[in-house]
Amino acid sequence: MKSITDQRQPAKVLHRLEDILFMAVVATIANAGCWEDVADFAQGKKEWFSKYIDLSNGIPSHDTFERVFRWIDGKEFERSFILWMREICTESSGMRVIAIDGKTMRGSGDTSIGRKPLHIVSAWTDANNMVLGQVKTEEKSNEIKAIPALLTLLDVRGAVVTIDAMGTQKEIARQIVQQKADYVLSVKGNQPAMLEDIQLFFETEMSTDFEGISHEHHLTLDKGHGRLEKREYWLTNDIGWISWKKEWKNLGGIGMVRRTVTKGEETTKETAYFITSLSKNVGLFARAVRGHWGIESMHWSLDVVLNEDKRTVRKDNGAQNLAVLKRIALNIIRADQGFEKASGPRKRFRASWDSKYLESILQNL
Question: Does residue 252 contact residue 276 with C-beta atoms inside 8 Å?
Answer without folding.
Answer: yes
